[in-house]
Each structure stands twice: as C-alpha cells, then as structure tokens.
Design goal:
The structure is a single chain. The protein is an alpha+beta fold. The chain has one domain (about 40-130): Chitinase A, domain 3 (Roll), CATH 3.10.50.40. Helices cover about 20% and strands about 35% of the residues. The protein has two helices and seven strands, in the order H-E-E-E-E-E-H-E-E. Strands 1, 2, 3, 4, 5, 6 and 7 form a seven-stranded antiparallel β-sheet that branches. The protein is globular and about 35 Å long. PPIases accelerate the folding of proteins. InterPro entries: PPIase_dom_sf, PPIase_FKBP_dom.
C-alpha cells in the first residue's frame, strides 16, 4: 500500500512540476521558460525592476551575475537589452525564468566585454520586485 501512495504522490509532484514550467517564444525569437510562476505584479517596460540573474554564453560560460555584484540588481527595464525588456515583462514578481536571447535581441554585432559579437545568450532571472 505504501508503494501505491508513493507512486501517486510522485505522479502528482511530477505533473505539478511540469505545469509550473511553461515556455513562450516571442515574435523577436526570445524564448521565456518560466521555471517558477510568480504571484506578484507583472512589470511594464517603463518600470524599474529588482532582479537576481546569471548570464551565460551558448557554451555555458558565465559572463555575469548579480551575485558577483553583491546581490540583486535594480534597473529601468526599458534601458537594457531588448531580450530583457521583452522577457522580464512576461514574468510576475516572485517568478524565475530562463531567457534565451538571440544575438539580435542581446548585443548583436558589437558584443560587449566577455561577450563576443553575434552571441546568443541565456539568462536565469528571478524577479524580486518592482521599484515604485
């Protein structure tokens, strides 16, 4: 009997975990994979957001993170790369998502610092809050 209960519990947890992760592909090619659904407000492009993040190149090399800078970063959502402006607007406070950014929505042909030109980027983002 215990094994049946364990199997049912595992199935419920598995289906809940699957339901929590949804993926959206935006017209620009940005992919937003919701890892944890937030329950708070959803930011607009002209909002200032507070986030924890980790950015990696296509090969998995980390090029930046909020942890490297001492904790959550705060910035106007309309003053960052288009991938962030578009992707973070799809999140709700308390949510976590993986943003897959085609080069054209990131730094494009110019590259920046450790990011080579024409690089697709991935960001793990936690939306901590919207600053009013």
């Amino acid at each position: 009997m215990k094994s049946i209960v364990a199997l049912v519990a595992a199935a419920v947890l598995s289906s809940t975990a699957m339901a929590a992760s949804t993926t959206e592909k935006l017209p620009s090619g940005v992919i937003v994979e919701h890892l944890t659904q937030g329950t708070g407000a959803q930011p607009a492009a002209d909002d200032v957001v507070k986030v924890n993040y980790r950015g990696t190149l296509a090969d998995g090399t980390e090029f930046d993170s909020s942890a490297k800078h001492g904790g959550p970063a705060t910035f106007p959502l309309n003053r960052v790369i288009p991938c962030w402006t578009q992707g973070v607007q799809k999140m709700k406070v308390g949510g976590k998502a993986k943003l897959t950014c085609p080069a054209a929505t990131a730094y494009g042909e110019r590259g920046v610092g450790a990011i080579p030109p024409n690089s697709d980027l991935t960001f793990e983002v936690e939306l901590v809050g919207i600053v009013k």
